[in-house]
Specification:
Number of helices: 5
Number of strands: 2
Shape: elongated
Strand content: under 5%
Number of domains: 1
Largest sheet: 2 strands, parallel
């Protein structure tokens, strides 16, 4: 099991999404290979957009250096960020579910 990030999908210009992309793609490849034999289950869960210290750092970025900074302000002011607790519950449920729904960005 690995955790993927929306930052990976959006290709933000920092090392963080690049580091997260490796486990995402490994999980995807492993899922494809093991699906032929039903020998293992490989999943990459999305915790959602979580209200973390990293979110606060993104909101404090200079707009000339980070073009999406306004998006992160909107997410915070409109209450669209998940709490770490709610995100953890959702990930736990996803990791124990018998039927998993593929992430739409993989399709």
């Amino acid at each position: 099991m690995s955790m993927h990030t929306e930052a990976n999908v959006k290709r933000l210009a920092s090392p963080y999404p690049r580091v997260k992309a490796g486990p995402d793609h490994f999980s995807r490849a492993l899922a494809l290979e093991t699906s032929l034999h039903n020998s293992a289950r490989s999943i990459s869960l999305s915790p959602g957009i979580v209200d973390t210290d990293m979110q606060a750092e993104l909101r404090s970025a200079d707009p000339s250096e980070f073009s999406e900074v306004s998006r992160f302000h909107i997410l915070k002011t409109q209450g669209l960020l998940d709490s770490p607790r709610d995100s953890a519950k959702r990930c736990w449920h996803g990791s124990t579910a018998r039927t998993l729904v593929p992430s739409p960005w993989w399709i």
